[in-house]
Amino acid sequence: MILLSLLAALTQTVPALPVVLPTVANARADATCGGRTALTAIATCVATTQGAAEAAMEAYDADFQRQGWLAADGRDNRIVYVRRKEGGGCDAFQVLAFAGQNTADPAGPAYLAFAVVPGDVCTATPASPVTPAS
Length: 134
Prior knowledge:
By secondary structure, the protein is of the alpha+beta class. The chain is 23% helix and 30% strand. It is globular, with a radius of gyration of 18 Å.
């Protein structure tokens, strides 16, 4: 039974990203997501260094913009990208940046995790405004 559970976990695939990840200097694929096991089930990760992380993210951002993605929200080391669908609504994905250790070290590991935002983050018609109770 344990073997079957392990086999099922190994055959699970990360949800396909709606964006093409370009090849970026100083960033390489990291199937372990920096050792964060929970992320491996939902994200595609790349590793870089703390010193190169900002330049890597700027390169990804420029390519995402070229593909028609807009940075719609961002805070706490996270950026959400959105692109309208032809028939209405939107696709979205997010990028989470994190360090591999708790100390600032330009040569230390840093990671970018790219994950699908499930569902439609935009609606074809705007929601009705909420009227406060009197």
